[in-house]
Design brief:
The chain is of the alpha/beta class. It folds into 2 domains: about 1-55, no CATH class; about 85-350, Alpha/Beta hydrolase fold, catalytic domain (Rossmann fold), CATH 3.40.50. It has helices at about 1-10, 25-30, 35-40, 40-50, 135, 140-150, 180-195, 210-220, 245-250, 260-275, 275-285, 285-290, 315-325, 345-350; strands at about 85-90, 90-100, 105-110, 120-125, 155-160, 205-210, 230-235, 300-305, 330-335.
Length: about 350
């Protein structure tokens, strides 16, 4: 790796006359969102990074993956707009609101015009996306909606929640950013649902992609009775600890299509929520699955692409196998493609009433 940084060094000369940090420092600065404090030109930094960490050509990646490319803010907070607003798009009406307080968050409720289906589908977005993730990102979600329409299926009410670009639904641990799982189930869901149309007790389904897939797995494992079924699309259930050794990380990255940067980013962001190994053990999906998966777990649809750039393909398959071994009704979509490759038809059928 050191040789690659040295080879990339001449690119710094094109950045201008300003004294520039060493290549390794520039790459680290970009990774941690410190470009501005170092006075580094973003385009020049991207060229250095791409020379140092060549990324395999993506295969059928969804736009969820683009949110984690070099140069993107990996921990983007909510925007400053607190005013409610409405989006009308392709026969849907989406109302979005921001909830102020110590845990400032945003949610959007999407209703399809003419639908009388009051089932609630909670959609948990991927890293770098936002509360508009159901309607404004990802071609496959659009195709899910189109499949419902073609089949004459009345779509559910879709609720998307967000705390910003990066957040995890984990129980309270030593990190100040933890404890959102309890907040989601005990406070957010009741607040959202009090204004939604009801037919008796609410019927809920759950879907999460990537980071949101990790979050959906946490909800299913901790609160299995709240949802009838759940889609875990390319869930970030990496079978590796944020505290893994360099040798373990090197072995994890030894898979087709893996991006060293994205593996680094995944582990780096994990440290924001898991300050100690005990914190991680408390929320490790594989540790939880050993005792919490059971025949009473909601029915699951889990999908993974065989060239996942975060190295998740093998881990997701192992997670699906663990659930099946523990008696869970699991459908596993083994797909050819990159991170968040999806089978929209399978998702549409699975989530249909």
């Amino acid at each position: 790796m050191r040789k690659r940084f040295l080879l990339a060094a001449p690119l710094l000369l094109a950045a201008g006359a300003r004294a520039q940090p060493a290549p390794a420092q520039r790459v680290r600065a970009m990774m941690t969102g410190e470009l501005e404090t170092l006075g580094v030109d973003r385009d020049a930094s991207a060229r250095v990074f791409n020379a140092a960490f060549p990324v395999p050509e993506p295969i059928a990646e969804s736009d969820e993956d683009a949110a984690a490319e070099p140069g993107a803010d990996p921990d983007k907070p909510l925007d400053g707009n607190d005013a409610p607003y409405r989006i009308k798009k392709n026969g849907t009406v989406t109302d979005c609101k921001t909830v102020a307080g110590p845990k400032r968050w945003k949610y959007c409720v999407t209703v399809t015009e003419g639908s009388s289906n009051h089932t609630i589908l909670y959609f948990l977005h991927g890293h770098g996306h936002n509360a508009e993730g159901w309607i404004n990102s990802g071609d496959y979600k659009k195709r899910v909606r189109e499949d419902w329409k073609a089949a004459g299926i009345q779509p559910p009410i879709v609720v998307t929640v967000s705390f910003g670009g990066f957040w995890l639904l984990v129980e309270k641990n030593s990190s100040e950013r933890s404890g959102l799982l309890e907040y989601f189930t005990d406070s957010m869901m009741p607040l959202i649902e009090k204004d939604l149309p009801k037919d008796g007790s609410p019927r809920r389904r759950l879907m999460g992609e990537s980071m949101g897939g990790f979050n959906a797995a946490q909800v299913v494992l901790r609160d299995p009775r709240s949802f009838e079924r759940a889609v875990l699309a390319c869930p970030a259930v990496a079978h590796i600890s944020p505290f893994a050794t360099p040798e373990q990380i090197a072995a994890y990255k030894n898979a087709p299509g893996v991006s060293p940067f994205k593996v680094w980013l995944m582990l780096h962001l994990s440290h924001k929520l898991f300050k100690t190994e005990a914190d991680w053990a408390q929320s490790d999906p594989f540790v939880l699955g050993q005792t919490r998966f059971s025949p009473s777990t909601p029915k699951l649809l889990i999908s993974a692409g065989d060239r996942d750039s975060y190295g998740l393909y093998r881990s997701i398959g192992e997670f699906a196998s663990l659930a099946r071994e523990r008696g869970v009704d699991v459908a596993f979509n083994d797909l050819h493609g990159g991170h968040c490759s999806a089978d929209p038809a399978a998702i549409a059928r699975f989530l249909a009433p």
